[in-house]
Amino acid sequence: MIEQNIHSNTREARCKAAVRTGETHPLIDVRNVVKIYNSLAGSVTALQGIDLQVYAGEFLVVTGKSGSGKTTLVNMVTGLDRSTSGEIWVAGSPLHNFSMEKAAKLRGKTMGVVFQSFELLPTLTVLQNVMLPMDFARRYSLREQRQRAMQLLEQVDIAEHARKLPTALSGGQQQRLAVARAMANDPTILVADEPTGSLDSATATAVIDLFVDLVRQGRTILLVTHDKDVAKRGSRTVTLADGEVIGVEEREGTHA
Ligand code: ADP
Ligand code: MG
Predict the structure, then answer these.
(1) Residue 70 CA: which ligand is closest?
(2) Neighbours of 113 (CB within 10 A)
(3) Which end of the chain is more exposed for a tag (fewer CB within 10 A), N or C?
(4) In sequence order, what are the beta bridge partners of 248?
């Protein structure tokens, strides 16, 4: 009974988000996706028929132990790697049919990706790191790029470090910079793979607080983590084991 209430509340929240964004279909729709890695050492089935939908306005967390297939799933939905079979629809487009080049274009248009290892460019300033993806997308003028990058740095609370090199920042600040950069082109969805993996627990909490804030502002987030405390913060948590979904837990809203 309680569970039913939680479900209907979450569905209601989702419907509201759908009305707000005009989006009734899932933003990401993973259908029966299988991924087999073939190497000299043999073949590994990393995903064995995954079905997963990400809806507008939700904070979806995918969790599971090391080796359960989380990063593989991220690589599939971002189009960084190809699935062996199955379908992946992103914002209504059939990513599974796309060339790597076309996939990169769709990714650039719809997604911001945050990696565990930050992947910041060490020779560019903090500000330039955020401006770079905007430069690639050619959506904003140079002046707008600068303004927008400053706003994003303010949002993640590191604007005072704009002119420094990334190496001058702490781990938590670098991760927040990676989040700002992922938001550079105003993506429909933010995808983060273990964004707190290399942070101490207080810093990790601050980074997750930032994600919760972004969801409250209407962003959609797909976050992958092996950390059980982080997993609890999602509005929905999907658990993987051996490349299969073994559990789904829904909560009302995001947890601060
Ligand atoms: P997680 O992110 O949950 O730790 P991964 O998606 O990285 O899990 O890995 C899932 C499984 O696929 C593991 O057994 C891993 O060893 C295997 N795997 C991942 N990447 C490759 C690869 N490039 N080649 C071969 N096996 C891989
Ligand atoms: Mg991983």
Answers:
(1) 1
(2) 22
(3) N
(4) 238
Position 256 in a domain: no
Residue 64: domain span: 2-250
Burial class (CB in 10 A: 0-12, 13-18, 19+), 160: exposed
For residue range 144-179, list pLDDT tens digits in order: 999 999 999 998 899 999 999 999 999 999 999 999
CA–centroid distance, 72 to ligand 1, in Å, is 6
Least distant ligand from the CA of 193: 2
What is the C-alpha to C-alpha distance for residues 153 and 151, in angstroms, rounded to an integer? 5
For ligand 1, whether the C-beta of 167 sits within 6 Å is no
CATH of the domain at 210: 3.40.50.300
| DSSP-based three-state secondary structure for 165 | coil
Residue type, 181: R
pLDDT digits (tens, 9 = 90+) for 72-123: 999 999 999 999 999 999 999 999 999 999 999 999 889 999 988 888 999 9
Q: Residues for the chain: how many in total?
A: 256
Q: Is position 195 within any domain?
A: yes
Q: How far apart are CA 70 and CA 215, in angstroms?
A: 21
Q: Determine the residue type at 161.
A: H
Using the mean position of ligand 1's atoms as its centre, give its distance from the Cα of residue 213 in Å.
31
Alpha-carbon Rg for the chain, nearest whole angstrom, is 18
Dihedral pair phi/psi, residue 103, rounded to 5°: -65, -40
pTM check: above 0.90: no
Residue 255 located in a structural domain:
no
Q: Is the CB of 198 under 6 A from ligand 1?
A: no
Instruction: Give the span between the Cα atoms of 41 and 35, in whole angstroms.
Output: 16
